[in-house]
Structure formats: structure tokens, C-alpha cells
UniProtKB/TrEMBL annotation:
It catalyses: diphosphate + H2O = 2 phosphate + H(+). Belongs to the PPase family. The gene is ppa. Its EC number is 3.6.1.1. This is Inorganic pyrophosphatase. The keyword RNA-binding does not apply. GO terms for biological process: phosphate-containing compound metabolic process. Homohexamer. Mg(2+) 1 binds at residues 79, 84, 117. Mg(2+) 2 binds at residue 84. Keywords: Cytoplasm, Hydrolase, Magnesium, Metal-binding. Catalyzes the hydrolysis of inorganic pyrophosphate (PPi) forming two phosphate ions. GO terms for molecular function: inorganic diphosphate phosphatase activity; magnesium ion binding. Its cofactor is Mg(2+).
Length: 194
């Protein structure tokens, strides 16, 4: 079975609160709960209290997600949601609501409407096509341009100029921000979980 250490139950566990953040910290492997596939303008989001997927909104433009998008369990970012994860170079669609072990290759720091809303950047751990990808630089120069363009323009028809990419950083910075978000989850959210 997968890497969940939970007693069997007749009710479905909320993965946001029972799945560990790291699948294997020494290998920079994290658990990503899939919310959105690439090539869609629909924004789905996990309901923190129940773990169900909800259609948050339909995008206002034709800009589609250029990557799989998900949430990192047992984390809490400055924007009041779990830390976001971009899973890049995925060749086949992933099932929203499932989770995957992904390998951290970096992080993009981001501001959305004045709030920090950083994005861990990762690749699927079990995809041998990704074994050579160990850093954002391995994705090539166009990756940063395309990702920056997407995030700085995806809300232009609704709230122009409200999103700003602050920078791209490596695995060490990603782990630092993940640990901060894990600590924030422990301080601000864990007591709400029953």
C-alpha cells in the first residue's frame, strides 16, 4: 500500500491532514495531492476541511495551466492554504484527488494580490524520463519564461497587475520554505483537525 500510516477506517481520510509532507526527506521526495491537470483553464481546489475537490473558478482567459498543480499536505502557506506544487513535464494526465510522490527541483516565490503564495516545483519521482532533472536549470531557459508569463498574466482579465513572480530558487530554498509552512501548519491549523 502507499505511504500512509493511518488505521483502516470506514470513512475516507482527508489526505491534507493524514498524508505526510515528505515521502522521503533525504531524497527530497514530497507527497503532492493532485488538484489540476495541465492544459485546462478550470481551477479546482481541495476543500481544507473535507479534502473534497471543488471547482473554485473557470479561468477568465484562454491561458491554460502549463503544468500539473497540487497541494502539499500538512503545510500552511501565508495565503491561508496548503503550499502549492507545480509538477512539470508530466506526459500523461494524472487523476485529480490522487496523490503522487514527486521530487523537488526548486521553488518559485510569488505574490498574488499582496499575499505570498509560493509554488514548489517538482517532477514525478517514478517517471524515468525525469531522472536527469535535478534543478530548475535542467528544464531550460524557456521554462522560467513560460512559467513567469503564465503566473503574471493568468488573472489579467479579472485583476490585471496583481500577480508578481519574485524569483526562482533551488532545492535548499524549497526545503526551507516547506519547513516554514509545516511549522505554520502545526501552529495555525493542526488544532482544528479532529
Amino acid at each position: 500500500m502507499a505511504n500512509i500510516d493511518v488505521t483502516p477506517s470506514k470513512v475516507m481520510a482527508n489526505l491534507l491532514h493524514v498524508l505526510p509532507t515528505y515521502a522521503d526527506e533525504s531524497e527530497n521526495l514530497i507527497n503532492c495531492i493532485v488538484e489540476i491537470n495541465s492544459h485546462t483553464i478550470n481551477k479546482y481546489e481541495l476543500v481544507t476541511e473535507t479534502g473534497h475537490l471543488k471547482l473554485d473558478r473557470v479561468g477568465y482567459s484562454s491561458l491554460a495551466y502549463p503544468f500539473v498543480y497540487g497541494a502539499l499536505p500538512q503545510t500552511w502557506d501565508d495565503d491561508g492554504d496548503p503550499l502549492d506544487v507545480e509538477v512539470v513535464n508530466v506526459t500523461e494526465p494524472l487523476v485529480p484527488g490522487s496523490f503522487a510522490e514527486v521530487r523537488i527541483i526548486g521553488i518559485m516565490t510569488f505574490e498574488d494580490g499582496g499575499e505570498r503564495d509560493d509554488k514548489v516545483i517538482a517532477v514525478l519521482n517514478d517517471d524515468k524520463r525525469m531522472d536527469h532533472i535535478n534543478s530548475i536549470e535542467d528544464l531550460g531557459e524557456h521554462f522560467e519564461k513560460e512559467t513567469t508569463y503564465y503566473w503574471e498574466h493568468y488573472k489579467d482579465l479579472k485583476k490585471p497587475g496583481t500577480c508578481k513572480v519574485l524569483g526562482f530558487y533551488g532545492v535548499d530554498k524549497a526545503n526551507e520554505i516547506i519547513k516554514e509552512c509545516m511549522e505554520r501548519y502545526d501552529k495555525e491549523y493542526r488544532d482544528k483537525v479532529k
